[in-house]
């Protein structure tokens, strides 16, 4: 009777460990998603700045 109870206890502990890891993966995936969103926003802002600078440069060249 000891071995079946031991197997059930080990199985339960295994599932508990997997649940903890699943929660950690979920939290890290959400954090990565926020970082990707922030990086995309910064890239878009830099692209807009570059476009404005290119237009300004083109006007300066046309003025010459």
Protein described:
This is Membrane protein. The protein has a domain of 35 residues. The chain has 1 helix and no strands. The mean pLDDT is 94. It starts with a helix and ends with a helix. It is rod-shaped and about 95 Å long. By secondary structure, it is mainly α.
Strand-and-helix sequence, N→C?
A: H
What separation lies between the terminal Cα atoms?
94 Å
Overall 3D form: rod-shaped
Q: Give the helix/strand class.
A: mainly alpha
Strand content: under 5%
Low-confidence stretches: none
Name a few traits of the molecule.
mainly alpha; 1 helix; 97% helix; single chain; 64 residues
Outline the fold blueprint.
Elements: H1 2-63
Write a brief caption for the model.
Helices cover 97% and strands 0% of the residues.
């Amino acid at each position: 009777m000891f071995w079946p109870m031991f197997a059930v206890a080990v199985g339960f502990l295994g599932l508990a460990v997997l649940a903890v890891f699943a929660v950690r993966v979920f939290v890290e995936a959400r954090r990565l998603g926020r970082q990707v969103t922030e990086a995309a926003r910064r890239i878009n802002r830099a692209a807009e700045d570059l476009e404005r600078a290119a237009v300004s440069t083109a006007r300066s060249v046309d003025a010459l």
